[in-house]
Write a structure and sequence with these properties.
This protein is an alpha/beta fold and 398 residues long. Helices cover 33% and strands 28% of the residues. The protein contains 16 helices and 18 strands. Strands 3-2-1-4-7-9-8-10-11 form a 9-stranded mixed sheet, with helices on both faces. A 7-stranded mixed sheet has the order 13-14-12-15-18-17-16. β17 and β18 form a beta hairpin. α6 packs parallel to α7. The protein starts with 7 loop residues before the first helix and ends in a 6-residue tail after the last strand. 34% of the residues are buried.
Length: 398
Amino acid sequence: MNALVFNPKVQAFIQENLHTDMTKLILKKSIFDGISNTELAEYIQGKIASEKKLPTWFSTPGIYFPKKLAIEQSSSEKTAAYKSMLIHGDSLLDLTGGLGIDTYYFSKTTKQVTHIERQVELSAIAKHNADVFRVKNCEFIVAESLDFLNKTERSWEIIYIDPSRRVASQKVVKLADCEPNVLELYAQMASKCNLICIKAAPLLDIKLALSELKNVQSVQVISVGNEMKELLFLLNTQTETKNPEIRCVQLNDSESHSYSFTYEEEQQAAPAPCAAPKTYLYEPNAAWLKAGCFKLLASRYGLEKLHQHTHLYTSDTLINDFPGKVFTIIANWTYTEFGKTIPVKQANCISRNFPMQVAELQKKYKLTDGGSSSLFFITDHVGQLRVLQATRYEKSPQ
């Protein structure tokens, strides 16, 4: 962490060069004494990466931006703020503190927070930024999480952990593929707290994790807009829960939606009736799809499915508050009919329960992205391949 970056001339240069080619910047003759061009480029790249994900950090003077990777691995402000509404109490231990985004939001709802980070520089940056925000109830400790747990005699009300991928390029579907391994750490964590909160990557297999973890009381399936962002497992170390709540959460700029259910309820629910495409088409938000809330979703909103394995819904009556995208169907072809005439050349393509992926379809039919409509390549209620053209339904002004 180089404090010379806060020199007014350096800050002015950074602001003027947010859109400069960083490769060219690095190759230039040294611009400022005491700061390498590489450091400048890393700081600029970190600030750019924070603009949408961490807008408060981006717009606050005096914030130190780490390398881009640290920001990519951190929680967004939206998800951190949501978690802080769930997790509150007298004391919290953040075992994988990183840049400190979650720690900052936990400090708003928890009396005392302990931030553990093994990288000396990242710990210093997190502390510096907390001081900029005038956070007074956090302590910052440089340590390996496992070593810290083994040596400390302290206890907390809550332990929060955000394990990273064991192999950076690997897609994580199992908790055992994460570092630190929370399955191996469970006993140590449980001996020092009442509530364990585990943040996991969106691709993690929820049902497999539930079979491996103990005392899970809730799983939060969190999306921002229509993109899955993270899973949060809440474990009550004092009480066993056999049928945990699964809560689907959709965080938007203007409003948010959530819906809770249990896998027992989903399993016992009657299969959704299937029907031919009607006036409206409904595409569930990513959180509902990830959670596997299919039968209950149809039952709650009185919808029919296009096919049991085509997780798209339809109705003649408009459902305004459906948790996802709503479309009006404007054309309906069999796949054979579509292939003979190719009546649409530009559209946003979606493939659901269909033998070809979007890239293959675009190449085969020379379809370009964009336009005002979408093409849904699906299998319908009688098992026939079909193409639907639809436009997004926009609510009328009140």
